[in-house]
Design goal:
With about 90 residues, the chain is α+β, with helices and mostly antiparallel strands. The chain has helices at about 15-30, 60-65, 70-75, and strands at about 1-10, 35-40, 45-55, 75-85. The chain starts with a strand and ends in a 5-residue tail after the last strand.
């Protein structure tokens, strides 16, 4: 099952994102669950959130993965939404 994780940064948290980016990217690359990932950008082109597509057996696996993300552990996000996703194109 594919799961879309959409995470939105807290206001004014760009420096917190930058400080934890290397650990977050390493976590993404070390996981066999990540299929696609990248940051959301605001109108000024600055990172302000994340979109991550995970492939998991059970939805709980995605929740467990998200809880261990260095960004989540650093308290970067104001909101996280996760839902099953169906790839149609691409």
């Amino acid at each position: 099952m594919l799961v879309a994780l959409m995470a939105y940064d807290k206001d004014g948290a760009l420096e917190l994102r930058k400080a934890n980016r290397d650990a977050h990217v390493a976590y993404l690359k070390s996981s066999d669950l990540v299929r696609q990932a990248g940051p959301f950008l605001n109108a000024g082109g600055e990172m302000c959130g994340s979109l991550i597509i995970l492939e998991v057996t059970e939805f709980h696996d995605a929740e467990k993965w998200a809880a261990a993300d260095p960004y989540a552990l650093a308290g970067l996000f104001r909101e996280v939404t996760m839902m099953p996703w169906n790839k149609v194109i691409g």
